[in-house]
Amino acid sequence: MKFSKGSLPHILVFVLGLLAVACNPTKYVPDNEHLLNNVKIETDNKTIPKEDISTYLRQTPNNEIFGVFKMQLGIYNLAGADTSKWINRRLKKIGEEPVIYNPLLTTITEKEITKLFSNKGYMDVKVNSEVSFPKEKLADVKYSIQSNEPYTLNSYSVNINQPELSDIASDTAASLIKTGKLFNSDVFDEERDRITSKFRELGYYNFTKDLLHYYADSSLVSHKIDLVLEMNEQLKKSDESIKKRIFQQYTINKVHFYCESDKTTDAVNLSPELDTLALGDYELVYENKRNIRPAVLIEHALIVPGKPYGDRSVERTYSSLNSLSAIKYVNVSFREVASDKLDCYIVITPNKLQTISADGEITYSSGYWGFGGNINYGHRNAFKGSETISAKGRLAYEYQGTGQKAIEVGTDLGLKFPTFLLPFSSLDMRRNIRANTEITATFSYRDRPKEYTGIVTGTGFKYSWSEKLQVKHNFDVLDISYVNYPKITGEYQNYINSNPTFAYNFQPHLIMRTGYSGSYSGFNAAQPLRNYTTMNYGIETAGNILQGLNSVFNAQRDTTGAFKVFGIRYAQYVKTDFQIAHHHIFDESNRLVYHAGLGIAVPYGNAERMPFEKRFFSGGANSVRGWTAYQLGPGTYRSRGNYVDYNTQMGDIKLDLNMEYRTKLFWKLDGAFFLDAGNVWTIRDYEAQPGGAFRFDKFLGQLGIAYGTGIRADFSFVVLRVDLGVKLFNPALDRTEQWRTNIKAEDFAFNLAIGYPF
């Protein structure tokens, strides 16, 4: 890499400035105090990872960038002592004040780590801390852990008289406690949770896990423990009336809904008019007006009259009702109305019904400046059933010279129902699968005076549902789009005619597809510093229904050998893609993310090529960032035209391999270093894309490789990202120039985006 002579002094000044800040980390450390500089864990135990042990540290040093430089502390230290100055207050707010070593927290940490190991069966563990002072006002802490021989479970038995509870606890196949394993109190507590949950699902509303107690008999010599599960002593000593109440099964008697009024539209009324409706064992009370239909509330309540009480039905009711866009808050409670009956009370707080927003952008494409804007409207309760209406309008303008103004106008409409819209779906089915049904419509008009006028219209019908919080599904039952170019300039038509791929894509065509897509996330909000993996996958196919109809009615092909519907050629293909990302988390400020993505699209039957809008492209903010979008590939192909070759620089096979190190900088800003590799290829040899076809023996040598750095502004609700990528290996160049050791201006690429790349 080469830098100009003029840029070198500026870089040196910047680096020296950072070093100056780093050399005085104790600027705001009081006398006789010490900055916690480093914390180290040494352990002889490989069973309990250091990552788990570190969560028990009660004091950790200031955050570090890439585990080396405490930038946030450095920014704090840049501030002067005069807090009346705005800049000093701002620097301290953006930065992070020094962590002052606290010996009390070190002692507490020792006890917490000891407790952790004891709970895992290492009851003879020894935890010691050692504090050193490498420099003035600096303190390093080292925790040394000697785990010693652990205790293991010799035998496990259940001594409970209640038959159903005893059967659940004695189920060796389902039990989490296994003989021969470590004496792990965390596992024992999880087993109590399992037993209690299963027992309460049978209707035992007053039973809690605290009523279960373990009795352990240990041998110091053998480090073996015999474990017995019994009822606790307090329950054993209780009178029969208390025992009877605890072991009483309850069923749901009635379910009462109380729907509060929408405070944003209803006048404040200390004594609102109440509208009461009784439907069998359901009672619904509305303040002032019925804002949600009774049938919708009943369908989304998994607590059902006549059925036993169960914690899972309560959790599912919360989840199901909170998924309704018209509802803001839900509260569920119970009241005993008989010796074996419970009434359920569900209080509903409505959400704000309507939203409207707008956003804008400045654009630069093919040397032309322009601007665009969107206006968005949403209604969360269109027909009193939590149906969501969404509408988006877009207008874009681009100045291309005197008398040449390109415009784009578009709209997207959507109507979402919070249930499966199926002709034969039962109430139980709709309750058991939390789903949405969505109907969409789209229209786009684009006029580029120097090139063409294009119109895209479409409509779709799809289902979406989820399994717990980790897996989500989408099924596009039918999605139809029609692309037409009613006007193409003579100059651009000549350009199109020069390439069969262009000519094919600029013909009017119809896409009638169906498809499935899904996603998985292993992220656990309760353990945010645990490593996790995410996946996205999907498959779609188009044209098969139309092909079947053509065969049934013995339709004739046109002169090019293609079938048409109402004189319009339709696409036929199958397309699939898969992406996986793994987050390796070092601490709350540093992580390494690996990503791989593969996509394959195959045209067949009525199609020679994939439609332009269904092909893959490489480069851009979410791919190989040393190239801008559509500028890498396919294969070794290199565009040499005067136009931006979006058509030729796309393919039917895509591979992305990425690695990104992310670190917290300061304030809302995060930094990243990345290494990307990837490309696209065509599924067949196309004359217009020489060198673009995929070959097993050549594709690895055709991967574009780039490295770079980026800045992210994370505002929680949105992440703004800018990445500077640099080409390392460019497969489109001559062999002697592919490795970019002598970097030029064309080897750099800026990519702006919203959200993380993966």
Which CATH architecture of the domain at 251-350? Answer: Roll
Distance between the termini: 28 Å
CATH class of the domain at 251-350: Alpha Beta
What proportion of the residues form beta strands (DSSP E)?
35-45%
Strand segment count:
29
Look up the CATH topology of the domain at 251-350. Ubiquitin-like (UB roll)
CATH superfamily of the domain at 251-350: membrane protein fhac
The Rg value, from CA coordinates, equals 33 Å
Query: What is the makeup of the main sheet?
Result: 18 strands, mixed
Mean pLDDT: 89
The low-confidence parts are 1-15
How does this structure look, described?
The chain has 15 helices and 29 strands. A hairpin with a 2-residue loop joins strand 21 and strand 22. Among the domains are: 25-62 and 98-146, Ubiquitin-like (UB roll); 152-246, Ubiquitin-like (UB roll), CATH 3.10.20.310; 251-350, Ubiquitin-like (UB roll), CATH 3.10.20.310. The chain has an 18-stranded mixed beta sheet that branches. The chain is 18% helix and 40% strand.
Question: Which key features would you list for this structure?
Answer:
15 helices; 758 residues; 18-stranded mixed β-sheet; single chain; 5-stranded mixed β-sheet; Ubiquitin-like (UB roll)
Helix/strand layout:
Layout: H1 7-22, E1 35-43, H2 50-54, H3 71-78, H4 86-94, H5 103-119, E2 126-132, E3 138-146, E4 152-158, H6 163-169, H7 185-200, E5 212-219, E6 224-231, H8 233-237, H9 240-246, E7 251-259, E8 274-279, E9 282-287, H10 294-299, H11 311-322, E10 327-338, E11 341-350, E12 354-365, E13 368-379, E14 388-399, E15 405-417, H12 427-432, E16 435-448, E17 452-467, E18 471-488, H13 490-497, H14 500-505, E19 509-521, E20 532-542, H15 544-552, E21 564-565, E22 568-570, E23 573-587, E24 590-603, E25 653-666, E26 669-681, E27 704-714, E28 719-729, E29 748-754
Parallel strand pairs: 1-3, 4-6, 7-9, 7-11, 19-22
Antiparallel strand pairs: 2-3, 5-6, 8-9, 10-11, 12-13, 13-14, 14-15, 15-16, 16-17, 17-18, 18-19, 19-20, 20-23, 21-22, 23-24, 24-25, 25-26, 26-27, 27-28, 28-29
Helix pairs in contact: 3-4, 6-7
